[in-house]
UniProtKB/TrEMBL annotation:
Residue ranges annotated for the NAD-dependent epimerase/dehydratase domain, each copy included: 3-291
InterPro entries: Epimerase_deHydtase (IPR001509), NAD(P)-bd_dom_sf (IPR036291)
Protein's name according to its UniProt entry: NAD-dependent epimerase/dehydratase
Secretion signal span: none
Family: Belongs to the NAD(P)-dependent epimerase/dehydratase family.
One Pfam family it belongs to: Epimerase
Amino acid sequence: MKVLVIGGDGYCGWATALHLSNEGYEVGILDNLIRRYWDSKLGVDTLTPIASIQQRIQRWKDLTGKTIDLFVGDITDYSFLSQSLREFEPTTIVHFGEQRSAPYSMIDREHAVFTQVNNVVGTLNILYAMKEDFPDCHLVKLGTMGEYGTPNIDIEEGYITIEHNGRKDTLPYPKQPGSFYHLSKVHDSHNIHFACKIWGLRATDLNQGVVYGVLTEETGMDEIFINRLDYDGVFGTALNRFCIQAAIGHPLTVYGKGGQTRGFLDIRDTVRCVEIAIANPADAGKFRVFNQFTELFSIGDLAMMVKKAGNSMGLDVEINHLENPRVELEEHYFNAKNTNLLDLGLQPHYLSDSLLDSLLNFATKYKDRVDEQQILPKVSWRRK
Ligand code: NAD
Ligand code: USQ
């Protein structure tokens, strides 16, 4: 099977590309490297010193003998995209290549517009390129659990059966996303669903929760494969940020009450979930949705877990409840289903003391690279 990993220079994409290559898939990476540019424009950097994509791929070849093809360019450029697909001839496209930060999308009008154009147009171009040349190819698209928001009823996997005025139908689950970024994912889902319906394309939307951790079997094989680990207030995500904050003695930044509950998963499960989706493709014409997380945690509980793990390593860890820069419920019901991937064989790595220890040790190893000015959130959801 030939798998094109779009966004393969990023956090989830790089780990997935190596994993698939290691498992015997023929892998190509397509990325315009724009994430590295956004970091430098914002003056932020990953905790870890990441090598260039060319160095990464060359080292992979030297170490394993396996080749990864590279296409550097932008998927919003249709001619570049369709030419790359014709050259690579994928049987599966895994699409990670979007602007994925909620705070980035809320900086101002320009960043909101950019996020939605980049994400929605990129995905629409992929759908058209598939329709033109690869109608049988399986699209595995990274969506987000945040598409659903925090409804006061159980969250199903993509669809809900509703009885209304004596009639019954199975319909897309209602979406109440919490940022212009999360909204871009909802728009993508609608476009992909429609394309499957009208052109008979096959797609799987992986509504992923917040990813944590940095090491996978493959990225741990050599220093050159080290993955990015974001800790700044724009791209850093909850648990990864808390571990890095604990390592440098910065109080943990819980926004508001901390009762916000989300789905979480270890990056080692991200790569497995994607592989499972690839190995079990959707039928032609089918738009499948899997909720991709392994556990639910509130932000306050995660902070407590990091504090406990830090204390047992001799770190003094304080928890601060900051004024919430976002507009979101801070106490709410949250119960989401996640059985589709488990039924296909996912064996989760649940959050454990040993994972927290290893992440804290990892953060401590690179703590001299931390810029403390980048930790507090600076982007507000509210009208000034
Ligand atoms: P990332 O920013 O590390 O990687 C995204 C990659 O896509 C970058 O290398 C970037 O250069 C590339 N890219 C962006 N726009 C592109 C374009 N127009 N053309 C070509 N390449 C482009 O992000 P990530 O954390 O690896 O997330 C990957 C995907 O997974 C995203 O779609 C995100 O929404 C989803 N996701 C991530 C998380 C998480 O916790 N990190 C959780 C749920 C879902
Ligand atoms: N939060 C804090 N303190 C922090 C960081 C975050 O309290 O220092 C809170 C936020 O207010 C929010 C929750 O933690 O309630 C999650 O925030 P996050 O920054 O960890 O994650 P989020 O913005 O939702 O986005 C991340 C990824 C995104 C992905 C999403 C999955 O950046 O690409 O889509 O997780 S999900 O959250 O399930 O929608």
